[in-house]
Every structure is written in C-alpha cells, then in structure tokens.
Design goal:
It is a single chain. This protein has 21 helices and seven strands. Helices cover 45% and strands 5% of the residues. Helix 2 crosses helix 7.
Length: 502
Amino acid sequence: MSTPHWLFGDQLGPSFTAPSDGGPRHDSPLVMIESRAVFRRRRFHRAKAHLILSAMRHRAAELGDRVTYVRAETYRDGLREGLPSGGPVTVHHPTSRAALSLVSSLDGVTVLPPRGFLVGRDEFASWARAREGRTLRLEAFYRQVRQDHDILMDGDRPAGGTWNLDHDNREPPPRGAPTLGAPAPYRPREDDIDAEVRHDLDRWERDGDVSFVGRDGPRLFPADRREALAALRRFVGHRLSTFGAHEDAVLAADPSMSHSLLSSSLNLGLLDPAECVERAEAAWRAGEAPLNSVEGFVRQIAGWREYVWHLYWHFGEDYRTSNALRHHAPLPSWWTDLDPDAVTARCLSTVIRQVRDTGWTHHIPRLMLLGSHALQRGWDPAAVTDWFHRCFVDGYDWVMLPNVVGMSQYADGGRMTTKPYTSGGAYIDRMSDLCGPCRYRPDRRVGPDACPFTAGYWAFLHRHRRLLAHNARVSNAVRGLDRLSDLPELLRQERARGDSPP
C-alpha cells in the first residue's frame, strides 16, 4: 500500500495531491486533521475560522473514502488517531515555522518540497546569493521572476516595454462617485457543510472552549476548488479591466473596488499562482484588459506574494522579534475588539467596521490606515503582526510576518522597505472619500478638529528624528519639523490622546 500523505488546512487544492515531483501517488491514502488547539491558542476572527473549517471539510467531502478526516485536540493526537498503526507518512512543506518544526520532530514523517508558489526555495537562494551585500528589494526579484517564468514577456523584453506600471495605477477615486462601478465580485452560496461548521463554532463558544472576534455573516470567500475557479473567472472576465488605475484608492461604500479577492483562495491552496497570472496575461493578449491592470495584478501575485513567502524563510526566526523603532505599547481594547463605534475618525471607523464584518480589506486600508495608525502610536510590532494574522481571512504567519514587521511597521529598520509607510491626512484625503464628512480635518495638526493621522505623522517623525534624518526618502519631511511653530503644542496633544480611540 502507498505511503499515507498528510494535508494541512492550507493545502487544499489539486496540486497538493498530485504525484509529480515526489508528491503522493494517486492511490496514496490521505489524512486531514482539524485541531481544536489551533483555535484555543489565538482569538481568531470568526469568519476566518468558519472559512478555514468549511474549506477543510469541503475538501474532505470531495476526497471521499480516500481521506481519513480527524477532529482532535492537537495535530499529534490527530496523527495517532488517523494512523493508528503508525508507520511512515509524507507531507508537503508546511507554510509556518511552527508547523515545520512540528512535522520535523515526528518520527516517520517525510517532508516534501513546498507547493503553491512559482519560485522554488533553491531559485530564491540563488538570486539572493547573487545579490550578496545588496538589499533584497522587490523590484529586482519581480523582474527576475518575470524573466525566469516567462510572465508578461515579449522575448527578452517586458511586455509593453516597461517592467513597472505603478505610475498608471495610483489614481485617486473618481470624484463624487460613491463606488467604482465595477461588476460585483463572485459570491459563493453556503451549503450544509457551512451550516455544520457554524453550528460547531457556536457550540464551542457557548462551551467556553474558544473565543472569537468579529462577525460571521454569509461566507464571502471560496471554500472549494470549484468556487475558487469561479471567483478567478469572474475577476479576469469582469473586474480585471478596471483594477489597475484605482488599485490604491479607497471608497467608503465600495470596500472591494475592483480587487480580485483571491488572496484567501491562493493561501488555502485552492488556486495556484501560475494559473492566476496565466489567465490575466491571456486577457491582456486577447485585448480584454489593459496592460496596467494586468501588470498590477501580476505584480501582486508573481512579485509581492512570492517575495513575502521567501523572505519569511530567508530572514529566519529572529526576524519575528525585530523592533528597530523600539515600539512596545500594547494594543488598546477598542482595536483588539474591532469596535468601530468607539472611533470618531471616519477612515479608521470605516475600515475597522469592514474588518469586523468581513475579515478583509484591501492593501491600502491595511497599510496606510490600520498599519500607519499602529506605527504612529508606537504599538508593539509583534502584537500588531499577531492581530493582522488573526483578524484577516487571508492572514497566515508567512503572510503577515514580513508584511507587518517589514512593510507596515518598519520594525526591521529597512531590510525590506526603503522608508516607513505612514502619512498625514492629506494622502488619505487625496486617495479616498473618507475625509469629507469626518469631524477631523486633514489639514489641521492641532486643536479639536486636528486629524489624528496628520498630528500622528509629525509626532512620529519627531519621536524618531535622529534615525529618520538619514533616510533619503523622508529626510525632507524630518527637516520640516523645524518649520512647525506649533510642534510643542502638537506633542502635548498627542501625549494626551495616547491610545484612546481617535
């Protein structure tokens, strides 16, 4: 009989059961383990817990008698129950250091290469070695991926003659429009498996076994391969064409804009990145989507997602404790409880409500609203990382550690990005419709109507003036501190504000 193969809950697509390159044979029995301890350790978003368990149980239903599906306290318990006779088992490389440590410590477990990514570990290592002594920036990596995997290439040149179309993809939202007007994203229909999961989660909460945050409304994201492919088709066929120009814009009444909403499907393993970029490129070559939209999407999948995955492993476990800015403040309860009604600032209230209700916002609210506020307030980057991990349906350790520690909180001191990503209210006002009805004014630093982002930005620069004065991308702003006649008043105001909801 073939060696049994263990599937983790983010290894749910067909590539994880394919026999090529050392994968399980077609007749290999499969084991899946639903560990209750995972949900006890962290206070996850309820919609995230529902999506993960629904996706796991949908996959088990698809696999039928081939899979042994175990509900256990821990993975170790589940493996003993799923393989009572012991013996060898294979598993594809897990996506977290904790899971890799676990499987590596178990007798008889053979760890196969990772799947679900375009770039192999050896490929990245070779690229990183070639850049020894230089910073491992996204742009250089992205160009290498495009060349090596023939993505959006015309011979040895990038399609359209340029690698980067970011300058075409930074338009503010259409003036006066409440929505972008794009066709709605794909929405799945719940079934009996979803109802069973919701019943179990309700029971666990009633019994005091687990505690969740956020709301669990009708499921918004795919839980099986069929749904994920439908979501991909919907995006490429109806939404990709309007994605690029406004991908950095925010509209209060249109949280999804033209974004793909495919990140959770990719991170569950339901979609493969290759099929996503291939379909997007095919749409451009068929004249069905403009190059700037397609390049922007390809950059997210073949560039940023791959880059983050490899940096997670390349930087090592010590990266988790990076805290170059020495931020140690704890997260306040209004933030951890996802309480938008406690917040006056319309931008933060709107986005926290979106997270509470759906477990998702797109990358700009994450970076320039949620992340920027945490950075300005000096919150502990490890706690901020954990919060993003728990509260987003697409959040996993490998996803959030580089994204939050490096990109969002600048806790690595610039190993990943060239500057702290934070701003005053003027940027938010330019790129969104959030400021108009807000009681705070983006051009006010001091006083009862002072924008918390504008005041917070200057307080942040002042707090880290010595460090940031030598950063070429923010040194001019740091010098601007000398022109603020109201700086002492601003600093007193921000100390008094503390971590209360703005």
